[in-house]
């Protein structure tokens, strides 16, 4: 018999009957016990909410009876007030009658015959109650006369001749304990909360009336979700709402009350499974002698992995052990391959880290340059602004100050526009208005844009003759921007009096547009990443080069969006440089047949 068969027999004998006949019923039993505990508390909460509503229904019945009083119908307020005082004296409650203007006409909390407070400020609230024509129960409030926590039922009604009143039945919140059961040995605590999650009463004294509900209970009340709520201390709360008042009856209890029986059932079942496991272990132990030798041989072969040539174990006569030995033998070869792969991945990771470090340094350098480039124009702008504020300036001085502000503002605008362009291009937010266009006007516009900059450095801009018409499908504005950026870059990095040459030729089905100079050239280490964001060559100590290192990155992105490519060539520092753009050619519009 194979080892697998022996072990399967052992496990079957010990565990299958227990698992088959106990697992599913046990799970249902555990869930049923827990659900029973929850249902019991939910029923208790609902019963308590019914008791709460019972008090209010009784009060509503009294209000209906009083609203039909003949003394009230005849507007005999003093007689009605006397009757109200008599009724409320035995009820530990107060009755207040408001007219439609919000003024109290009767208040049993004020001694009979005493003047009533001016409550016309409540006119809007009384108007809303009269408009709704619905009996409502307030949240917890402070009595204006007793200054104690109170709750009230407000009953709007109308009499003949369109006379409207609101009758309020109020009593201290502490009297709501009549609706709560007495504390029991189960440790359950009953609470009543208003719609704002403030405590009205609890059957655990002393009750902190007016205190805010715990956050978990308050969240359930505000979201109007009843049912079971888990508390941070491990206990539970069961919530039920009162249909009439909108208040909440909350029963808090311990985890033992809900989960205790379920845990005990699970514990007993676990002990049974443990006994079954021990039986399986004992059975396996009795059978282990037969395979001990084979396991020892296989372990020796496994221990040799990684410490020398793979070693195939001697046959043991047990199929599974022999198969395992062969698998271990094959695993040795796989381990060597995995080690080589791990080394390769480590090299890749180190390279990726170097790239990330390089990019991070470039970012830091860019931020430093950005601060400098944005700060530089501020000094001349500030000086010019102070000059403009000085009296008695001549027209020439005013013009000079204005020119300084305009020039430096234009410089800052170019910097910000470069940043915005790069941001839009790298995030794919730029849209190209592509159409067939000739390259000659593009070059002419770029040369015109940079002619003043070149003249200031005594550079000569030369455009090689273009043979034939060269048309591309592109965005004219963006292609002018790309060409002008390359020209501006050549102007900045060339010594005064240099020649900068622009050339456009056809190579196969592509347009090759090149800008070359005999300037400072490009270091070999910078050349592979010259089109990366923030990449720049070494800056002169006077920082006259300026710029943020965004121009070439913008060139690269815009050319890519046109389906082309851009490359940089240089023999090294002091050897000049050449930038080459390749774009697909397209037929000239007047040569396309209809």
Structure in words:
This protein is of the alpha+beta class and 594 residues long. Among the domains are: 68-175, PAS domain (Beta-Lactamase, 2-Layer Sandwich); 431-591, Heat Shock Protein 90. The chain has twelve helices and 18 strands. It has helices at 3-67, 70-73, 77-89, 123-132, 215-222, 255-303, 319-375, 378-389, 395-426, 439-456, 476-492, 551-561; strands at residues 93-99, 104-107, 136-137, 141-142, 149-159, 163-172, 189-193, 199-202, 227-230, 236-241, 248-253, 435-438, 460-463, 471-474, 499-507, 510-517, 565-569, 577-584. The two termini are 86 Å apart. Residues 369-587 form the Histidine kinase domain. Its EC number is 2.7.13.3. It is an enzyme of class 2 (transferase). It catalyses: ATP + protein L-histidine = ADP + protein N-phospho-L-histidine.
Highest-level CATH class of the domain at 431-591: Alpha Beta
The tally of beta strands, per DSSP, is: 18
Report the principal-axis shape: flat
What is the name of the CATH topology of the domain at 431-591? Answer: Heat Shock Protein 90
Uncertain regions spanning at least 5 consecutive residues:
540-545
**Global structural class:** alpha+beta
Mean pLDDT: 82
Number of helices: 12
Sketch the major β-sheet: 6 strands, antiparallel
Please tell me the CATH architecture of the domain at 431-591 by its name: 2-Layer Sandwich
Indicate the radius of gyration in whole angstroms.
46 Å
Order of helices and strands: HHHEEHEEEEEEHEEEHHHHEHEEHEEHEE
């Amino acid at each position: 018999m194979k080892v697998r068969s022996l072990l399967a027999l052992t496990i079957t004998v010990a565990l299958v009957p227990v698992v088959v006949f106990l697992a599913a019923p046990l799970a249902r039993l555990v869930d049923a016990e827990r659900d029973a505990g929850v249902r019991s508390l939910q029923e208790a909460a609902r019963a308590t909410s019914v008791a709460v509503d019972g008090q209010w229904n009784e009060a509503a019945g009294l209000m209906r009876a009083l609203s039909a009083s003949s003394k009230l119908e005849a507007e005999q307020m003093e007689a009605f007030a006397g009757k109200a005082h008599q009724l409320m004296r035995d009820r530990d409650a107060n009755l207040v009658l408001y007219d439609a203007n919000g003024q109290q006409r009767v208040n049993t909390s004020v001694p009979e015959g005493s003047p009533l407070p001016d409550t016309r400020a409540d006119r809007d609230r009384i108007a809303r109650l009269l408009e709704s024509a619905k009996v409502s129960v307030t949240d917890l409030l402070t009595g204006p006369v007793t200054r104690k926590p109170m709750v009230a039922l407000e009953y709007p009604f109308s009499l003949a001749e369109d006379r409207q009143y609101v009758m309020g039945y109020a009593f201290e919140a502490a009297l709501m304990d009549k609706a709560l059961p007495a504390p029991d040995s189960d440790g359950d605590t009953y609470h009543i909360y208003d719609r704002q999650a403030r405590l009205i009463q609890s059957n655990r004294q002393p009750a902190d009336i007016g205190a805010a509900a715990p956050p978990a209970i308050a969240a359930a009340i505000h979201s109007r979700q009843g049912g079971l709520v888990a508390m941070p201390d491990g206990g539970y709360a069961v919530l039920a709402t009162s249909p009439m008042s909108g208040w909440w009856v909350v029963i808090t209890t311990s985890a033992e009350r809900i989960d205790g029986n379920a845990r005990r059932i699970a514990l007993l079942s676990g002990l049974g499974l443990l006994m079954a496991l021990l039986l399986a272990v004992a059975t396996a132990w009795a059978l282990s002698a037969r395979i001990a030798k084979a396991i020892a041989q296989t372990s020796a072969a496994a221990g040799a992995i990684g410490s020398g040539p793979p070693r195939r174990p001697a046959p043991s006569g047990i199929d599974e052990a022999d198969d395992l030995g062969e698998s271990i033998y094959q695993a040795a070869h796989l381990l060597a391959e995995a080690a080589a792969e791990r080394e390769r991945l480590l090299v890749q990771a180190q390279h990726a880290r170097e790239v990330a470090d390089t990019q991070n340094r470039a970012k830091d350098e860019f931020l430093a340059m950005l601060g400098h480039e944005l700060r530089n124009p501020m000094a001349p702008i500030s000086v010019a602004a102070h000059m403009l504020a000085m009296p008695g300036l001549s027209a020439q001085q005013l013009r000079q100050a204005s020119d300084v502000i305009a020039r430096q503002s234009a410089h800052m605008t170019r910097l910000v526009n470069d940043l915005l362009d790069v941001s839009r291009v790298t995030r794919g937010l730029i849209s190209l208005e592509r159409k067939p266009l000739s390259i000659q006007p593009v070059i002419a516009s770029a040369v015109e844009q940079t002619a003043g900059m070149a003249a200031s450095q005594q550079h000569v801009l030369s455009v090689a003759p273009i043979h034939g018409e060269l048309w591309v499908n592109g965005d004219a504005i963006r292609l002018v921007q790309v060409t002008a950026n390359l020209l501006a870059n050549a102007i900045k990095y060339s010594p005064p009096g240099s020649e900068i040459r622009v050339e456009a030729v056809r190579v196969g089905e592509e347009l090759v547009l090149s800008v070359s100079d005999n300037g400072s050239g490009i270091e070999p280490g910078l050349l592979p990443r010259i089109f990366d964001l923030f990449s720049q060559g070494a800056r002169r100590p006077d920082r006259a080069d300026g710029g943020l290192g965004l121009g070439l990155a913008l060139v690269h992105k815009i050319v890519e969006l046109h389906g082309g490519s851009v490359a940089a060539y240089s023999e090294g520092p002091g050897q000049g440089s050449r930038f080459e753009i390749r774009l697909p050619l397209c037929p000239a519009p007047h040569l396309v047949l209809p």
